[in-house]
Amino acid sequence: MTPVILLAEAKKSAEVTDWGARIGWLVGLVLFIALVYWLMREGWKWRGTLQSDLPALPGAPEETGPAKLGMSGRYHGSTTAGQWLDRIVAHGLGTRSRVELTLTDQGLEVERPGATDFFIPTAALREARLDKGIAGKVLTEGGLLVVTWAHGDKLIDSGFRSDHAAEHTEWVDTLNQMINDTEGAR
Questions:
Q1: Distance, CA of 101 to CA of 141 (rounded, Å)
Q2: Residue-wise DSSP of 106-132
């Protein structure tokens, strides 16, 4: 019984936390996270460099005519057509943003506040479809409007999601009808 009494009589308890080691681990963790973010940023810049052969995005013409359809929603990015994980970052196409889409006889006007606006001429449109995902964004089946278009010698898929998903079907039907009419006129 003597050892228990001696323990209770001790003037100083054992140290619970080694603060030096804990702070060292926290600093190491913060440095590791900073390194990972820096590497991701460098990879994004490198992808932009590899895609530098992509021509500049066309702007909207002065007169586009009356709007056939309009939509507010989100722009989720662009990828190489048919390769839903191969994100295109050149010319700001990889930047997610709010979007205002306007479809006219001249083409599709993509207005993005805080990001580069662009215009897809009717002759460049190839296909519209409903899909469930594009690089970095996966939704329910049919939750994403994907427009395939030609830019330079590359086919691009651009993903949009309307604030009112019920609009997607009308957009797909109208865009595909325009594409078929344009191909028939050629």
A1: 22
A2: SEEEEE-TTS--EEEEGGGEEEEEEES
The two counts, helices (H) then strands (E), for the chain are 3, 9
The model's pTM is: 0.75
SS3 97: strand
pLDDT (tens digit per residue) in 112-140: 998 889 999 999 999 999 988 888 778 77
Cβ(138)–Cβ(126) below 8 Å:
no
Question: How deeply is 53 buried, as exposed, middle or buried, from its count of CB atoms within 10 A (0-12, 13-18, 19+)?
Answer: exposed
Structure tokens at 37: 């973010």
Q: CB atoms < 10 A from the CB of 160, how many?
A: 22
Beta partners for residue 11, in sequence order = none
- Residue 43, strand partner residues: none
Beta strands per DSSP E along the chain: 69-80, 97-103, 107-111, 118-121, 125-131, 133-134, 137-138, 144-151, 154-162
